[in-house]
Amino acid sequence: MAFDYPDDLKYSDSHEYARLDGEIVTIGITEFAIDQLGDIVFLELPDVGNEVEKGETFGTVESVKAVEDLKAPVTGTVIERNEALIETPEQLAEDPYGASWMLKVRIEDITELDDAMSADEYQQQVEGG
């Protein structure tokens, strides 16, 4: 299967992505990660108003195969979470970079994304290219 690696995203080695728009970062997990997990059955995300800290666990995604921690690519305050995804986590696989985002976070320090991977770097990591 060929995966998408949108160029407008920054990637973490734990397979989360971040899309920066001003001081708001949209966070989700990559198509590759979803493929590795298999059928997703449960998603746990923090409440609006909660703080997330870069590198720390902010929730979990559970599939029939495994439970994986979700790691925050940035530090900030949750301003929105994808309630529809919590209700129907299996939709995660349908549009991971669009409708199936997880959180929107107001970022504190934009330079936190400086060490994130580009689309090319992430693709090389996961595909061994």
Total discrete domains: 1
Q: What is the percentage of strand-forming residues? A: 25-35%
Which strands sit side by side, in order, in the main sheet? 1-2-3-9-8-5
* Uncertain segments: none
Task: Assign the CATH superfamily.
Answer: RNA polymerase II/Efflux pump adaptor protein, barrel-sandwich hybrid domain
Question: Level of helix content?
Answer: 10-25%
Number of strands: 9
Here the CATH topology equals: OB fold (Dihydrolipoamide Acetyltransferase, E2P)
Give a structural overview.
With 129 residues, the chain is α+β, with helices and mostly antiparallel strands. The protein has a single domain, classed as Beta Barrel (OB fold (Dihydrolipoamide Acetyltransferase, E2P)), CATH 2.40.50.100. The chain is 16% helix and 34% strand. The chain has helices at 31-37, 83-87, 119-127; strands at 10-11, 16-21, 24-29, 40-44, 51-52, 57-63, 67-71, 76-81, 103-107. The strands form 2 sheets. The chain has a 6-stranded antiparallel beta sheet with strand order 1-2-3-9-8-5. A 3-stranded antiparallel beta sheet has the order 4-6-7. Strand 2 and strand 3 form a beta hairpin. The longest helix has 9 residues, at 119-127. The glycine cleavage system catalyzes the degradation of glycine. The H protein shuttles the methylamine group of glycine from the P protein to the T protein.
